[in-house]
Design a protein that fits this description.
Order of helices and strands: HHHEEHHEHHEHHHHHHHHHEEEEHHEEEE
Shape: globular
CATH topology: Cytochrome p450
Number of domains: 1
CATH architecture: Orthogonal Bundle
Bound molecules: protoporphyrin IX containing FE
Largest sheet: 5 strands, mixed
Strand content: 5-15%
Distance between the termini: 49 Å
Helix content: 40-55%
Length: 504
């Protein structure tokens, strides 16, 4: 890609580009410390770089695809110079193991995207903290009160209730065209808000209202977080100028979200601090945080992260599986057969899910082809270390390209075909031990919400398949469904999946 098409593709005004370049030339060489030439000697291979911008022009707005193409030419571990920032990307199971297992200790720090660089918020962050004591405490708290077997068991009735509302809503909308992402998002969001705050926050309806503002706020936060083009992160000297308005824009959305949480936290606080309160009465995750002495600011940040990380990834996974099932009628009819054999009641209940092996295989297969977080979240080298005999200097930004790995013919037979059979009778799972399939990551930074995410994806899909026939509107041909993706922290379909749900 040449520079002009790179700028046009990314909607970058030429003056902004040249202004940043000029500022960069003026200050960078004097003020920015480069990694020592010794540590730059044995870097993983990568394409030749241009002066100043390095390989920026080769990244484009779909970095999972462009870096997969570069890896095909340069190997499993590549270096790219995005302006001043050295980026290393692992694209094979062996390289992923090097990053997430062998050198997990050194490579599990976080590179914080501009959208989340708010000095008042970062000290309370679970996702963007280094592996420090705050991060350990927050992981322990979420594991104990949200994701342990005991907590998941306790959430079971809630999950059933929220999915029940979704099914009632879809039954009431039979024959109408539905944007399924919206409905699934609302369902997951309300499940999470019932766990976190002990209340629903969004209503399933078609009318634009206050609820839609909250949805839009959370969408915006994740959208700002996934911006690829951000000169501040390529040229640290430009960081403070926030040239693209990312920090300012995301802060506005954070503050809006905090406004929603504030009154609920105060409501819960008055319960928890009443003289008659006892721990057995805790109804929500926030009750536990308050009992542990969390301030409103600390709670604001943590719960926003949980909503943003939990609802978008899980929703988009459901939608990608649905898209593949819509496209492959023969696979859908096998899922149907399995469900008819295993489920004799009108409604799905959680005990059915463990028997649906073919549906589970379909979920793995869709996550292989469409990992919701295609590059995982950005890791950072806390110390200089070696992976596959190459040097990864301190402060390198490190990604693992799950999208590339899922489509690599050296890893998978016939990788581009949707073939759930490949997982039938196989022990391969996505829990972080099989380095070919890591949609939740692996090692210290593995997704803590994995059990919640998997249970929700299975339950929602099983319910939708059990009760409805899914029909594409306007006689659109199933096999031609557009499967293009839009890159972001959570990868979504370029075009929304719209379906008509007909009662079976
Ligand atoms: C299908 C659903 C999900 C997928 C595919 C997914 C995927 C991921 C991935 C790839 C990471 C980054 C791992 C890394 O950087 O190495 C991550 C991190 C994280 N996820 Fe999930 N996730 C899902 C659901 C959830 C849910 C439901 C929650 C919470 C409600 C959640 C909360 C988090 C948090 C807090 C982190 C940051 C952990 C850390 O940095 O220590 N995720 N997730």
């Amino acid at each position: 890609m040449d520079i002009s098409s790179f700028l046009i593709d990314n909607n970058l005004p030429f003056p902004l580009f040249f202004l940043s370049t000029f500022l960069f030339l003026l200050f960078t060489f004097k003020q920015t410390k480069s990694p020592s030439s010794k540590s730059l000697k044995n870097l993983p291979p990568g394409p030749p770089k241009l002066p100043i911008i390095g390989n920026l022009h080769q990244v484009g707005n779909k970095p999972h695809i462009s870096s997969a193409n570069i890896a095909r030419e340069y190997g499993p571990l590549i270096s790219l110079h995005l302006g001043k920032q050295l980026v290393v990307i692992a694209s094979t199971p062996e390289a992923a193991m090097g990053v997430l297992k062998t050198q997990d200790r050194f490579l599990s720090s976080r590179f914080v995207p501009t959208a989340f660089q708010h000095k008042n918020l970062l000290p309370n962050s679970l996702i963007w903290s280094e592996c420090n004591q705050t991060w350990r405490n927050l992981r322990t708290l979420t594991r104990t009160h949200m994701f342990s077997n005991k907590a998941l068991e306790a959430q079971s009735a809630l999950r059933e209730e929220k999915i029940g509302h979704m099914m009632d809503f879809l039954h009431s909308k039979q024959g109408q065209v539905i944007n399924i992402e919206d409905v699934v998002f609302t369902t997951l969001f309300n499940t999470l808000s019932s766990i976190i705050f002990a209340k629903d926050l969004i209503v399933l309806n078609d009318n634009y209202g206050r609820d839609d503002e909250l949805k839009a706020t959370l969408y915006q936060i994740i959208e700002f977080g996934g911006r690829v083009i951000d000169f501040g992160s390529f040229f640290p000297i430009l960081e403070r100028f926030d040239l693209h308005g990312i920090r300012k824009g995301s802060m506005k959305q954070f503050l809006k979200a905090f406004g929603y949480w504030e009154y609920i936290i105060e409501e819960r606080r008055s319960q928890v601090s009443s003289s008659t309160w006892s721990s057995e009465e805790a109804q929500s995750f926030v009750d536990h945080l308050l009992e542990n002495g969390f301030s409103n600011n600390q709670i604001h940040e943590l719960v926003t992260e949980l909503f943003v990380a939990g609802s978008n990834t899980t929703t988009r996974t459901v939608v990608w599986v649905m898209s593949e099932l819509v496209r492959h009628k023969e696979v859908m009819s096998k899922v149907d057969d399995e469900m008819k054999k295993e489920i004799k009641s009108d409604k799905i209940n959680p005990s059915h899910l463990s028997k649906l092996y073919y549906l589970q295989a379909c979920i793995k297969e869709a996550m292989r082809l469409h990992p919701a977080v295609p590059l995982l979240l950005p890791h950072k080298a806390a110390e200089t270390c070696e992976v596959m005999n190459y040097t990864i200097p301190k402060n390198t930004k490190v990604f693992v390209n799950m999208w590339a790995m899922g489509r690599d013919p050296k890893v998978w037979d016939d990788p581009l075909s949707f073939n759930p059979e490949r997982f039938m009778g196989s022990k391969m799972d996505f829990k972080g031990q099989d380095f070919e399939l890591l949609p939740f990551g692996s090692g210290r930074r593995i997704c803590p919400g994995l059990p919640f995410g998997v249970k929700s994806v299975e339950f929602i899909l099983a319910s939708l398949i059990h009760e409805f026939k899914w029909v594409l509107p306007d006689g659109e041909e199933h096999s031609k469904l557009d499967m293009n993706s839009k890159f972001g922290i959570a990868m979504k379909r370029e075009k929304p999946l719209k379906l008509i749900f007909e009662k079976k």
